[in-house]
Amino acid sequence: MTTRRVRARRGEGALLREEILRAAEDLLAESGSEDALTLRAVALRAGVSTPSVYLHFADKEALVEAVCMRVWGEFGRMFRENLGGDPFLALGRCGRAYARFALEHPVQYRVLMMRATAGPGVPPAAAECFRHMVDAVSACVETRVLEGDPEELALGMWSAVHGCVSLLIAQPSFPWPRDREALIDHIVRVAGFGTAVYSRLPQTLPPSADLAAALDDFGARLASGVASGVASGVEKPRGDEPGGAGE
Amino acid sequence: MTTRRVRARRGEGALLREEILRAAEDLLAESGSEDALTLRAVALRAGVSTPSVYLHFADKEALVEAVCMRVWGEFGRMFRENLGGDPFLALGRCGRAYARFALEHPVQYRVLMMRATAGPGVPPAAAECFRHMVDAVSACVETRVLEGDPEELALGMWSAVHGCVSLLIAQPSFPWPRDREALIDHIVRVAGFGTAVYSRLPQTLPPSADLAAALDDFGARLASGVASGVASGVEKPRGDEPGGAGE
DNA sequence: ATTGTTAACCTGACGGCGTCAACCTGAGAC
DNA sequence: GTCTCAGGTTGACGCCGTCAGGTTAACAAT
């Protein structure tokens, strides 16, 4: 891609913007490191001189931000694909899809979430993405599985899933379990049921023995409810995701 | 601190290492930005020429790593201060202390957790810190509040708390609730009870209505258990933390 | 066909960064 | 006094983001 790009026709200068963005994305994905995302490297790959990038991006930060908007867009699309059906199950599907996407695109996720963010205000693509999360939570509040302010609950659940994938990406040396898929199921379930239980908790807790007993009973009741056939209308666990955890 | 440092006596060259580390820490804390952590700035602040840093650190990464080790040490000390008493309450205290420390030292936390980590293997200070987490979880497994592999459970709970503080630090523009303390309580409780509930869940869930009812009953049972005075031995919520959530 | 305008892009330079090879210098042993 | 070498310094290299100014080619008007 070192070949000199042919100059765009009049009025089509904006084409370069797309090519630069594509070059930046490719560079990020292929190198696997954000340090490789250099104005010089991007320009070279786009077949253009370095300062030409400034024709379409105010500075490097603006270019990176533009790349991030693409990623937010992908997250938004992913949420949209996973909505529908029982709200609590859909929430679990979204969480798992989020984690999977993040782990499949670790560099992009790094740049998106672990960079020092500049300006105030949430960019539209990010806001839309967050709105999907809130909507998914709201649906669960309507079925009374969750209780509370959907926005706050969504932030909490997002925190949990983000924490898991960001630690996996940034601190891979820790003794993570072999099975990443199971880990994600774990964290999604913890986030989902933790949020569900949270609003029902009293201010002060009973001693551990009583707490453990209450937890055991809760689990037994769920199991018997499912076994006795009350579970009509429940989605079947998908074949590729045994247990359908978190759903 | 621009004054030229007096040369160390023979055999005391290692003094410079401490001064450089201190300069780096101060620079990070005062500037509030990791970009300000420059070899040139550090050297200037230590009253020494730039390449002198290489007398004690292989490269910039090694210097940053050394700063991180200090932070891990602080985290470890913080855990040690919050252990003891009922294990599940201690776990909540640790989680809250972790989050508070992170939010009070956002730049250090950034560098520690959101940097592209280089070498393989967990450094000793980090391993010790993680061991504290695992120990705190193990104690909860012994009282039967939690079930499962302590290491995996600890990773999950760490993920949740880390996710919350790292999002707060890296994405401050999102509609976070006014009360950060309450948010931390929220996430710590979600992580704690989510983890407790997780191991009791059946593979398939009952429909939302039954699930909501079971959750309500669980909460009612906890509340009545506390109200009926069974709660002997439970720590009182601390005055500065109404609700003692998560504990 | 020629010219003028201007969008689209390039050249060359600046200061700052991490890093390195080579040099200096002064504290302390003799 | 002099020698040694730990404990530094000097100056340079290549890469980075950024910018002022120059160049070139597509198109409209003539």
Description:
The structure is a homodimer of 247-residue chains. Chain A has 247 residues and is an all-alpha fold. Chain A has 9 helices and no strands. In chain A, helix 3 runs antiparallel to helix 4 (87-104), helix 3 (60-82) packs across helix 5 and helix 4 runs parallel beside helix 7. Chain A is elongated, with a radius of gyration of 22 Å. The N and C termini of chain A lie far apart (46 Å). Mean pLDDT of chain A is 90; it is low at 229-247. Chains A and B meet through helix 4, helix 6, helix 7, helix 8 and helix 9 of A and helix 4, helix 6, helix 7, helix 8 and helix 9 of B. Chain A binds a DNA duplex (30 and 30 nucleotides) through residues 5, 7-13, 16, 38-40, 48-52, 54-55, 59-60.
Query: What's the tally of helices of chain A?
Result: 9
Largest sheet composition of chain A: none
> Could you give the distance between the termini of chain A?
46 Å
Q: What is the string of helix and strand elements of chain A? A: HHHHHHHHH
Give the structure's gist in a few sentences.
Chain A has 247 residues and is an all-alpha fold.
SSE layout and pairings?
The structure is a homodimer of 247-residue chains.
Chain A: H1 15-31, H2 39-46, H3 60-82, H4 87-104, H5 106-113, H6 124-142, H7 150-170, H8 180-198, H9 208-230
Helix pairs in contact in A: 1-2, 3-4, 3-5, 3-6, 4-6, 4-7, 4-8, 6-7, 7-8
Chain A binds a DNA duplex (30 and 30 nucleotides) through residues 5, 7-13, 16, 38-40, 48-52, 54-55, 59-60.
